[in-house]
Amino acid sequence: MDDRQQNPVHQLGASDFTVLEDGKPQTIKIFEEHAMSAVAPLPPAPRLEPGTFTNYSPVPANGALDILLFDELNTPMTAQAAVRNQVLKFLKEAPPGTHMAIFSLTTELKLLQGFTSDPEVLPRAGCREEGQSRRVAFDEQSGFRR
Q1: Does the pTM exceed 0.70?
Q2: Which segment of 1-10, 34-43, 109-118 scores lowest on mean pLDDT?
Q3: Among candidates 99, 129, 127, which has minimal Cα distance to 114?
């Protein structure tokens, strides 16, 4: 939660919120704050013999890992442009050092980008800038993306 100056508000409890379902208050059973800590250092990259390659993704031992899922299967086509714009905004405003992986869900789950904290890589992996589009193919019979 942010204050009027868009600064995070800390030390809130379950009693500070009301959750309604069909207009009726619900009990909040578990409530805890998750604050972003200082950027955790990455472990050293493994030493490899020349000509040896790996898909190893270094991640901090004690830091948070975020996963962004593009749910293209359940998001209406009419909403996908707005979702793309919000994701780009989110990725551009992510705090430095945020370790994130990006997946896409169509008729299958695909890894678009393994864990990285590179602010240049994440927006390119998730979606194209304005005026560019991701290629999507449709199965004429089922209507699903391939």
Answers
A1: no
A2: 34-43
A3: 99
